[in-house]
Each structure stands twice: as structure tokens, then as C-alpha cells.
Amino acid sequence: MIKKCPIHGVFRGTACTCGEAGSLILDDEQTERLGRFISGALRHFPDDLGLAMNQHGWVDLDVLCDAMRTRYKWANKEKLISIIESDEKKRYEIQGRKIRARYGHSVDVDLDYPDNTLPELYYGASREEVDILLEKGLKPIKQRYVHLSTSKEKALEVAKIHTDDPILILVDAAEAQKNGVRMISATENIVLSEDISPQYLKLIQG
């Protein structure tokens, strides 16, 4: 659920970090339903909802709210923004009257984030797929970019969503970028990349 603390603003859970119970904005079911709607609208099918997305993934916030209200009469802009502001993974961002997803797109976008500056990045994989990845490289599957993690811990956390026994691949980001592979920093934990050849990959846990 999402609630609002009079001191610290919106938060997820039963109580704010300060102990304040807060006032309810969205219950668990509403949070999940709106979260799925926002993800679909900003990552996968903006055209189906009448959203004009520019090349960098931005859509008009008010137009998104209008599309949302046609499906969920109980929803409003405050509830939508509460989902964005309380999201610990920072999946979305708002600038003025525009909103976009930071990562996870299946539609063709050209995100304009700064270039990655970390020399090494990480990718978590299952044991069943790791040999193929090391042989053929990393390529986006059903997404616009390859999603890399900035730490071993985050890579394992992501991989554990899909496998109980993840292993890590080290990505030589510095060398890859030096040779023309574009990598951009979407959040402090996620770097988005174009295709990465096997020569920049190394198994570091197995």
C-alpha cells in the first residue's frame, strides 16, 4: 500500500520511517493495478493508449492521467504521482509536465542518459543460459537495451527473480565503451547497454 506522512511525504508500507501511520492513498490491489498500467503505458504499448511518446521515451503526464482515468475511475494524478515518488527502484521519472520510464522498454526509444563511467559492470544469469551468453554475448530479449547492474549484489538480486541459483558475469565496460559499445546510466543501480560481444564477458562465479 501507499500512504502519505505529513512530514516526509509518500511511502510504501504500514508506517513511515519516522513511525507516523500516515493517510492511505492506495491499497495493495490499487497499487498493483496502477503499477501495471503505468509500466505498460510507458514501456510497452503507449500507442494503444493514445500516448505520443517522443524518441527519448517522454509522454505528456496529463494525457497519461486521462488515459488512466478512463480505465480506473478511482484514480487521479495524485495517486499516479504517489506511485512514482514512492518507488524505491526509481523506475520512472517526472520532469515538468512529462513522464517516462527509466528502463525496461520494449518499444524503440533512445534514452538520453549520461554515459556510464564504471569500468566494470555485472550481469546475473542462470546456469542453464550462462554458456550461451559467454559464447554469443549479451543481447536484449524483448527489451530495447541490455540491463546491467552496477554491483554484484544487485546483479544477483535481479537474477534471483528468474533462478534460484544465479551466477555472475563480469562485463569489461571500460574496454567495451572504448570500442564503441554505448552504455548509459539509468539509475545508480542500472546501466543500459547495446549488444555486448563475448570478448567483454567473463564468468566470475560458478
TrEMBL record:
InterPro entries named in the record: Ptrans_KptA/Tpt1, RNA_2'-PTrans_C, RNA_2'-PTrans_KptA, RNA_2'-PTrans_N
Keywords: NAD, Transferase
EC number in record: 2.7.1.-
Pfam family, one: PTS_2-RNA
GO MF term list: NAD+ poly-ADP-ribosyltransferase activity; tRNA 2'-phosphotransferase activity
Top EC category: transferase
Any one biological process term the GO annotation gives: tRNA splicing, via endonucleolytic cleavage and ligation
Coiled-coil regions listed: none
Domain of life: Archaea
Range of residues in the leader sequence: none
Record bears the keyword Hydrolase: no
Its job: Removes the 2'-phosphate from RNA via an intermediate in which the phosphate is ADP-ribosylated by NAD followed by a presumed transesterification to release the RNA and generate ADP-ribose 1''-2''-cyclic phosphate (APPR>P). May function as an ADP-ribosylase.
NCBIfam families for this protein: PRK00819.1-5
Entry similarity comment: Belongs to the KptA/TPT1 family.
Protein name: Probable RNA 2'-phosphotransferase
Phylogenetic classification of the source organism: Archaea, Methanobacteriati, Methanobacteriota, Stenosarchaea group, Methanomicrobia
Name of the gene: kptA
